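FORM 7B: Structural annotation worksheet

SECTION A. Query
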Amino acid sequence: MLDSDDTDRRRGVFQCIKYRAVMETMDMRSETQLVPLLVTQTALPGDLSDLVWRHGIRHFKAPGTLG
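SECTION B. Predicted structure
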């Protein structure tokens, strides 16, 4: 059973944006570009997929069940 809805997935996208900004600010010497990864058990709806693409976030759709 999946507990997250689109609101939770949207929150995850914005967490990826926020944490990348924080990490880049903390280590401005680094030339390595940080690429956040959003992991979900479902495909993203079009508006979230566009948001992920615009902000350079990688998305991985994990299997719905494990084991």
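SECTION C. Observations
The chain has one domain: 6-61. Residues 9 and 44 are 8 Å apart (CA to CA).

SECTION D. Sign-off
Analyst initials: ____
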